[in-house]
Q: What sequence folds into this?
């Protein structure tokens, strides 16, 4: 683990405070004694991005451990000293609420590279004031750090115990008082309603929509359902609740009076945000000094709560609250505002929560308005709505972008558009039709404007004289939509603008209709070139960047965001597009554009069967696969045409949302519907977390223990998980599945190591439950180290954490070891054999004898005595830990002296084995350890294992994980590369590469507000050896 510390200490950290705190107060905050949480005692909340790197993450695995040289240790100590001498703010007499108002820094990564300012001389004690050891000698800096850390741990433990005891006593006192003093009437005013209480005799109790409340309601009792958006407790007798009903929020006041008891307030205080409540209260004018309520959408009224009952409560910890999701990029651009903006990926990963925000609610009200205007306008023009099938016997446009399905053993396809059905309806003399329905495109395009499933607004109509009749109908439809939105959804548009700033759409009374070739010339005349640096041809379709640039040119010249391109080339149109009668290279087709991007493709269709068959054969399409479609034209069809609008795309462009995923309720793109992790045969099926031993019953009531940790490691574990058996680790157990997470409480943090021990499909819920436990019950901050890519993705996408990798598990296939062909390695092994080195095996399941244990313990002591310098570690040397899942290999000389030891730890079936320890004892002949390692790998291969890991090793470069990009990554990568080269961090990785080891990245993960200097210190000291020896 020494490389991890080198990487972290190689980067200086810097913190910068700010006065702005996150808006509101955590509704889950519990009142307690006037003691600050341990995470806030000592270092103030300075949040800075992680700018440090981890490497050589051995997880207790080493081949030949030598101490760091003095020069490097001195450099590291100097940097540590610069961290430890930062000013600290000790607070012991303020409640948590006041701490939350303390300075919060930015989370820019650049602060860590700023030059650290010196301190005045009085910040350091003089030599005369230094404490003395038991022997009367001056205490060393390392000893002082050790004592400080121990004191901090004891202080935190004491504070947590005091907090728990205070809460326990308070709960007992409040409940005892309620049992004695509360009347039946008071008890009926609050509580949780049964889930099946919505039957029987109707109560006919009127409900109100809070956004419709007016001053005329003042003094009246009203009833409504809402969610708890946020709550703030001011005292034991008064609290404020922000109550949300869709996009409207109103302040509720809960105070002890009359039928509202003290226990009512105590109960309400412990409700979670997003809880659904049924509220009865009196409308009143706000009593605030400023005359209005700030922080809610209804400023001139508030609700004095008389009754409140829970109708639904969150059972899983929320990755973020709606209150947090309301913070926009516009908000944080204000000076001093350092609140975190939830990323788009995190929003999409927890879409249901994101859809509760005012912006999302407004977006989909506007989307509904588009459909309403589309239907209303076309109905007024004599169109009828139809619904065409989405299962087809052939692709409607091209087989390359179609989803194939198994239709009772026969091939079928999901409709790429309702095109064929619409035309068949026209051939059926329905004359004018439209449809609103799903469209499927199997295009592997991960862009901001593509979906694999979207909603199409399509129309088809007969042509009387000219195909521009279709164009005029579509043009009037679009303008009807625009007018309807800006007339009836002005409030919603303004709400969206707060999160997605944009200008209103501009369109002209007479829409410009520009021939395609003329538009190309217009663009070429500005000097625009395509992505290959060439002038745009007039007979090929436009690319996306060309469309956007053309939109800019037209906006500048014609002053409109909305226009039409007509007469598209035949090469850019499907087989059914009608050719231009005067130029067969062109078609009677057009595209309509909004803000420089296509929102509709339409035109006249070929209505002659013979011509359609000719076109299909030219495109290698089988006419027999579309007989039903062709029959309508063989039986005669009128001239017709139409077009299709992408609902999500037009919504995205009108509101300038930037990404089409914001405009779809639950997006479907190439990354959607990820494959579920496979369920493999476990080593201990009785210790499954998918089917725990207590399935179908309450574990505690059944008096059943959790699955043994050792068996969970053998079922689901990787190298890092084996460190959880160390005494310093604590283990969180998920109550329903028994899944485990290992952590070490350290300096106000829960240093969490490795992946959860459970099936991968359970990661998200297990992590959510763990984070809630650490925050609510342990009052710690979480830092996550050495986890795999799956956990990094969950933390990044669901919880908006930042992740990066500078290390990787060094894995190899023991059955395909290229080292057997390495001449230098084989020379060493032959030398060991000539020296009489003999290798012995103790297979898994065979307990080592007492005699062997004693001999190995003695040689381990010899090895530890030879270690020099400060040790950095994750695992102690415990050879006989979890013996039932260990395999031992040791070597001896001719006289029986043990010269080396390799211990293989059994991991999950997917990960095989870990070389837990590889110890080269003093006096061993050259080549002895190489021979022992090669023999051990062969023994692992004999068990059928296809993977063995040495543990972690440093990577040559920093790899960004989740939510790290742009300049931040460039700066961090450059810094890490310099450190890795200077401190030779990859030496061990290079040696392992000779054995065929491949890198499997492991990650450092931290919350969105940054890691901060205190987090860096915690990681550094976590890996240090408090005992100055005896560690690996």
A:
């Amino acid at each position: 683990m020494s490389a991890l510390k080198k990487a972290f200490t190689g980067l200086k950290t810097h913190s910068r405070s700010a006065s702005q705190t996150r808006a509101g107060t955590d509704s889950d905050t519990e009142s307690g004694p006037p003691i600050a949480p341990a995470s806030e005692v000592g270092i103030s909340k300075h949040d800075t991005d992680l700018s440090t790197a981890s490497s050589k993450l051995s997880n207790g695995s080493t081949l030949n451990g030598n101490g760091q040289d003095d020069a490097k240790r001195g450099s590291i100590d100097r940097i540590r000293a610069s961290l430890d001498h930062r000013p600290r703010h000790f607070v012991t007499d303020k409640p948590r609420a006041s701490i939350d108002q303390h300075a919060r820094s930015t989370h820019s990564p650049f602060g860590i590279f700023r030059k650290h300012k010196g301190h005045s001389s009085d910040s350091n004690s003089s030599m005369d004031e230094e404490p003395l050891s038991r022997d009367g000698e001056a205490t060393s800096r390392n000893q002082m750090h050790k004592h400080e850390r121990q004191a901090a741990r004891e202080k935190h433990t004491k504070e947590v115990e005091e907090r728990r005891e205070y809460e326990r006593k308070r709960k007992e006192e409040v409940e005892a008082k309620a049992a004695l003093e509360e009347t039946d009437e008071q008890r009926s005013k609050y509580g949780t309603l049964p889930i099946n209480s919505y039957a029987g005799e109707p109560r006919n109790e009127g409900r109100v929509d809070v956004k419709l409340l007016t001053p005329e309601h003042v003094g009246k009792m009203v009833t409504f359902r809402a969610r708890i958006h946020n709550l703030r407790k001011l005292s034991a007798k008064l609290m404020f609740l922000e109550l949300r009903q869709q996009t409207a929020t109103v302040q509720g006041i809960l105070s002890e009076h009359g039928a509202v008891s003290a226990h009512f307030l105590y109960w309400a205080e412990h409700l979670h945000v997003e809880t659904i409540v049924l509220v009865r209260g009196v409308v009143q004018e706000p009593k605030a000094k400023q005359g209005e309520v700030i922080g809610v959408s209804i400023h001139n009224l508030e609700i004095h709560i008389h009754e409140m009952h829970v109708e639904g409560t969150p059972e899983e910890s929320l990755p973020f609250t709606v209150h947090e999701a309301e913070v926009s990029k516009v908000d944080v651009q204000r000076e001093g505002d350092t609140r975190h903006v939830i990323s788009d990926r995190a929003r999409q990963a927890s879409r249901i929560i994101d859809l509760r925000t005012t912006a999302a609610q407004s977006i989909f009200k506007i989307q509904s308005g588009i459909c309403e205007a589309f239907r209303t306008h076309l109905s007024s023009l004599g169109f009828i709505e139809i619904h065409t099938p989405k299962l087809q016997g052939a692709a409607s446009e091209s087989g390359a972008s179609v989803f194939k399905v198994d239709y009772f053993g026969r091939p079928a396809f999901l409709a790429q558009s309702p095109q064929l059905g619409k035309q068949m309806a026209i051939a059926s003399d329905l004359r004018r039709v439209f449809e609103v329905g799903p469209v499927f495109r199997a295009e592997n395009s991960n862009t901001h404007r593509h979906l694999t499933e979207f909603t199409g607004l399509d129309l088809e109509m007969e042509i009387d004289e000219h195909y521009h009749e279709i164009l005029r109908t579509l043009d009037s439809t679009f303008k009807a939509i625009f007018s309807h939105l800006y007339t009836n959804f002005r409030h919603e548009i303004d709400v969206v603008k707060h999160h997605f700033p944009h200008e209103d759409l501009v369109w002209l009374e007479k829409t410009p209709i520009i021939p395609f070739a003329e538009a190309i010339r217009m663009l070429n005349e500005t000097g625009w070139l395509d992505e290959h640096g060439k002038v745009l041809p007039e007979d090929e379709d436009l690319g996306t960047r060309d469309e956007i640039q053309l939109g800019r040119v037209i906006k500048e010249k014609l002053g409109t965001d909305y226009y039409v391109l007509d007469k598209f080339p035949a090469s850019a149109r499907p087989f059914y597009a009608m050719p231009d009668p005067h130029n067969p290279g062109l078609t009677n087709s057009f595209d309509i554009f909004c803000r420089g991007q296509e929102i509709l493709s339409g035109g006249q269709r070929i209505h002659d069967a013979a011509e359609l068959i000719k076109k299909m054969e030219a495109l290698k399409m089988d006419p027999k696969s579309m007989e039903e479609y062709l029959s309508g034209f063989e039986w005669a069809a009128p001239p017709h045409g139409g077009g299709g609008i992408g609902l999500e795309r037009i919504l995205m462009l009108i509101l300038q949302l930037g990404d089409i995923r914001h405009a779809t309720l639950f997006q479907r793109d190439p990354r959607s519907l990820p494959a579920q992790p496979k369920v493999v045969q476990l080593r201990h099926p009785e210790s499954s977390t998918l089917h725990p031993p207590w399935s179908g019953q309450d574990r505690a009531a059944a008096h059943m223990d959790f699955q043994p940790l050792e068996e969970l490691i053998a079922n689901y574990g990787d190298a890092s998980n084996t460190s959880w058996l160390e005494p310093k680790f604590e283990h969180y157990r998920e109550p329903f599945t028994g899944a485990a997470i290992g952590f070490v409480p350290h300096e106000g943090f829960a240093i969490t190591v490795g992946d959860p021990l459970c099936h991968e499909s359970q990661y998200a819920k297990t992590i959510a439950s763990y984070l809630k436990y650490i925050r609510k019950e342990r009052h710690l901050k979480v830092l996550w180290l050495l986890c795999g890519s799956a956990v990094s993705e969950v933390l990044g996408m669901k919880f908006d954490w930042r992740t990066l990798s500078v290390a990787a598990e060094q894995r190899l296939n023991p059955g395909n070891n290229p080292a057997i062909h390495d001449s230098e390695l084989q020379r060493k092994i032959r030398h060991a054999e000539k020296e009489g080195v003999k290798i012995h095996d103790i297979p898994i399941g065979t307990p080592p004898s007492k005699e062997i244990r004693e001999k190995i313990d003695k040689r381990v002591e010899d090895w530890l005595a030879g270690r020099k310098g400060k040790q950095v570690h994750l695992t102690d040397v415990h050879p006989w830990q979890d013996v039932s899942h260990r395999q031992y290999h040791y070597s001896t000389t001719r006289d029986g002296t043990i010269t080396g030891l390799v211990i293989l730890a059994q991991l999950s079936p997917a990960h095989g084995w870990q070389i837990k320890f590889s110890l080269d004892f003093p006096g061993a002949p050259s080549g002895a350890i190489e021979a022992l390692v090669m023999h051990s790998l062969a023994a692992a291969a004999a068990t059928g294992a296809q993977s063995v890991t040495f543990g972690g090793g440093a990577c040559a470069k920093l790899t960004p994980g989740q939510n790290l990009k742009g300049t931040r990554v460039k700066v961090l990568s450059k810094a890490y590369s310099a450190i890795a080269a200077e401190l030779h961090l990859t030496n061990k990785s290079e040696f392992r590469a000779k054995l065929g080891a491949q890198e499997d990245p492991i990650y450092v993960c931290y919350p969105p507000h940054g890691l901060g200097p205190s987090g860096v210190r915690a990681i550094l000291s976590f890996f240090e050896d408090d005992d100055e020896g005896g560690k690996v």
In short: The domain at 362-662 is CATH 3.30.930.10 (BirA Bifunctional Protein; domain 2). Residues 141-181 form the longest helix (41 residues).
